[in-house]
Design brief:
By secondary structure, this protein is α/β, with parallel strands linked by helices. The protein has 10 helices and 8 strands. Helices cover 50% and strands 13% of the residues.
């Protein structure tokens, strides 16, 4: 999988040369790694040998990176099955469900190639190969051995496909949910002419999120659930009165309602 000195992969196949794939491929090329790639649209990337088919790119490549979309990942694996073989590592870098990653791992297993579920934990543009990542699956340890020396900050999770995806999606519930909550408040504040105050208030609130604040969320949400239900229902009314659709506020009220009816502490 590495060259005779054991320092660099002899070649990396990049299936998908869109924004993310191109950024990673460019960084690999700059390190002296031979990159062979394929993309249904992109036909030229500096330093990358772009092939006519995905199978041409992956044939014989020690490491293959699938960087396209979750909706295309199954088709990519099925197309590559005839050329994947023992000794190769196939890594799926797409954001998919744990079940999808497990399915992909099962498809790859009979070929003898080692499947890796890679979760990219921050946006790739601007980071490229240096995007912090998690790796799980049968080939995860090997992937870390090969890619970490190249500067990829990749952390081994375990040998189960889907574990890396699970961790990323758990984080996404918070991060993307936070984005959605911010935007619902921001759009409402804009309708009311209070964006400057809102931005300042949100900034102050984010500054005080720490371990103690998280502990208060875990313990206080149930204790104060009933009061907070009414608060979020009023917030939803405010959004509607501004002529917008209340989504996050309604969802928050519903979660608090379920929590108030639960006999267990949030865990």
């Amino acid at each position: 999988m590495t060259d005779s000195a054991g320092t660099l992969p002899t070649a990396v196949a990049m299936i998908g040369l869109g924004e993310a794939g191109r950024a990673i491929a460019t960084d690999l090329v700059a390190l002296g790694v031979r990159v062979v790639g394929w993309d249904p649209v992109v036909k030229q990337v500096d330093g990358v040998l772009v092939t006519a088919t995905a199978t041409e790119a992956a044939r014989g490549a020690p490491v293959t990176l699938s960087v396209n979309s979750a909706s295309a990942s199954r088709h990519v694996v099925q197309d590559l099955l005839p050329v994947l073989e023992a000794g190769q590592v196939f890594a799926d870098l797409n954001t998919g469900s744990p079940a999808l990653k497990q399915e992909l791992g099962e498809l790859v297993a009979p070929t003898g190639a080692q499947f890796v579920d890679i979760a990219l934990m921050t946006p790739v543009p601007g980071n490229g190969l240096r995007t912090p990542s998690l790796a799980s699956g049968p080939g995860a340890r090997r992937f870390v051995e090969v890619m970490a020396p190249l500067g990829m900050p990749v952390e081994y999770v375990d040998d189960q496909p889907g574990s890396a995806a699970t961790r990323k999606l758990l984080r996404s519930i918070f991060i993307k949910g936070l984005h959605a909550a911010f935007l619902e408040g921001y759009n409402t504040a804009a309708k009311l002419g209070w964006t400057d105050w809102y931005l300042g208030e949100v900034g102050t609130s984010l500054d005080v999120i720490n371990a103690a604040a998280i502990e208060r969320i875990l313990k206080g949400s149930k204790v104060h659930a009933v009061r907070r239900i009414h608060e979020m229902e009023a917030a939803a009314d405010l959004v509607r009165e501004a002529g917008l659709t209340a989504r996050v506020s309604v969802a928050a009220a519903e979660i608090l309602r379920e929590l108030s009816q639960s006999a267990e502490e949030p865990t």
